[in-house]
Amino acid sequence: MNIIEIKGLSKSYGKQVALEGVNLNVKKGEVYGFIGPNGAGKSTTIRILLGMLKKDGGVVKILGKDPWDNAVEIHKKIAYIPGDVNLWPNLTGGEVIDFLGRLNGQVNSNLKQELLEKFQLNPKKKCRSYSKGNRQKVALVSAFLSDADLLILDEPTSGLDPLMEQVFQSSILEAKKQGKTIFLSSHILAEVEALCDRVGIIRQGKIVEEGTLDELRHLTRTTVTVQLNNQDDIKDIEGIYDLSKLNEKWRFSLDTNAMESVMQRLAPMGIKSLVAEPPTLEELFMRHYGESDDRKGLK
Amino acid sequence: MKRSKFEGTMKLLRLYLRRDRFILPVWILLPMILLAGQVSFVGAMEDWREFITELTSSPLTQAYLGSIVPLSKEGVVLWRAMLQGSMAVMLGASLTTIRHTRTEETSGRTELLFGKAVGRYAGITAALILSCMGSLVAGLAGAAALIGGGFALDGAILAGLTLGLSGCLFAGIGALFAQIFEHSGAARGSIFALYGFTMVPMVLNNIAGGRTIWAWFAPESWFRITEPFGGNYFWSLILFVLISLVPMVVSIKLLEKRDLGFGLLRQKDGKPNAKPGFSTPYALAWKQHKRGIMIWSLGMIFLGGSMGIVAPNISESISPMLTEISSWAATMQNLGNQEGFVAALIYILGLMAGLSVFAISAVLNLKEQEKEHYAEMVLSRAVSRGRWMASYLAVVFIGSALILLALGLSTGLGWSIAAGDFSYLIRVLGMSLSKIPAVWLIASISAMLYGWVPRFSGILSWVILGIFILIEMMWEAGLVGWSVLKLTPFAYAHYTIPIEKVAIFPLVALIFISILTVWLGIMRFSNRSVQ
User: Fold this and answer.
1) Interface test with A, best of B377, B383, B392 (most A CBs within 10 A)
2) ipTM of this predicted structure
3) Would you give the DSSP letter of residue B348?
């Protein structure tokens, strides 16, 4: 069952096109990573999902309903962390957590206490004196405190320290275990790699890649470092690229589907050591980020 | 003070000029327009001397505007225009200073600039230069208008400089408040409050003859001290300059004492848990506006109470001549000078210049809530847009009624105690509460604009209020009739109508119109994108 269904979604701000035909589906119980460069349309998509922005065209269904027409009903079942967490300066963090929780029902004060300790947040401070990271913690505690079926998180960890990043990741996995669905927009690729079942890459208002990490990896090259007994040159082997040699070790990349044939050529040369690194999400990502030149004309 | 602490001042000044390119001319040119208007208005009057002599003989006019010094065309122009002119520069200069200091600091933009080669004092210095230069240019432009009307050069320049320096003092006070308060809203509110307080020495000075020590405490009365076209006391300007420098120097000293982003009044820790009832958008709106409502109420209690106590000192004599030549004076005669004074006070504070400002700025806070993404935090929960907006508006409506209640009670009590007659209390309370429908309508218009044209709702709300006030002034000057004034909400609980003669039906109608207007605004808000 699809928790989020987006088909052909388009949105413009005046003449500026923000989204042009976004398609994506998020299944129940999965963690979906939503990545893309700044200004690609991530926050616009999310704010349409929340019913804050009116779409220009396409179909958007969240928990089976249109978010613009059924905002309140849907919001009862979701928790949201905005990209910029701005909190009322004259309220304390604790007051905000209670208030936001109560707008949707009851606040479980034991769980609240537990989360405050877990995220090491002082709830007595006024929000105006919180740092960016602390404001994010308020939003995180508030989101994990809710009994929402779907968490929509817009770059929730961009201000957190590595320790808190760990706490965040364990909380997400915990939420997943409880059967919750998570829609995570993030720039921290290690986080997406660690958490997400599936990933969608958005660029200039379109989804350019979608799938599991394994599926996406197939689209790009693996990096191999190999040390051989034989001193033969290997540059003639078909399917390898970017060859270099350092300290007796060859380093090259190869197409994933050429793996078998390349290995068959290497094996007779006497492999001393071999390390194959699958493409990192970062490499996948750079493939889409770096290509901006060819589309400049479209701006 | 090291010179490097001022580095970048001129660059920032250019930035501020660029940012203020639309708003700066408004407050700078206003005094000139007012003065030029009066020059041509009085110039066109054949029998101005007769008219004005009679008008100033009214103790009521005396209290608000003082006597005409010198008793010449020049004096009349100053008498009619200096008060409003200095109000424009005092508020313009101080709000400009706050806009470029505290507002920038709260938003974090100051930090962005101070990461560059910009000295610690550069921002505040550039802001002060901008507002002081603006005030002085405003004064000189006003002087030019006077000279253009054929008035004496020295008097015109003295009047202009007096006006400009009143702006310089408030520029400095704006900078001072920007140091003390951590929030620009609090700093701005305190400026309005301070301006309100200066009305007390202004009136005391007017009642006591026009040239007393009180005038020093009210910059809008400084032209009483310099007496342009009369005594031409240029030397007082030196004192004004010295007085104006004090808050500026203190602000820069204070800047040295505090951390960036903080005020002098430090934040204390709060409660780790919210109170049990803090669970609805209405509770949130109330929490946001509670302080403002309290401050407004206290201000009204102070102003209303002190003016109420002054009321019995006003002579009840009215010249029969005056009532013949002015229809306004004739209506006021029905009320009597004391009641007329109080009725006009309640009208100005409770509607025209006081509560309208509260209502509009409180409604426009919705815009702020949306822009700062506070609205998003609430609207992403199980709260509909209509409920969110209605909650805030309910607080504005109830809040303005509470402030009017405070105004009526304090003014009525002040007058009753001073006169020893408690029947005044009920009358004054009636005057004050009868303003509620008009204030609500003004709030509702802003709310509708917020729903339909959020970007322009601020400027449009103030322009509409400005038009209402202009119509009121034109009516008082006899330029338009009552039927035109009835196009504004002001006419239905007008101060010239004795309170027992105020018709109930139009007030009820005003309430219905405002409910309808609010409904239109909420409908649209529920159906537009949230920014």
Assistant:
1) B377
2) 0.80
3) I
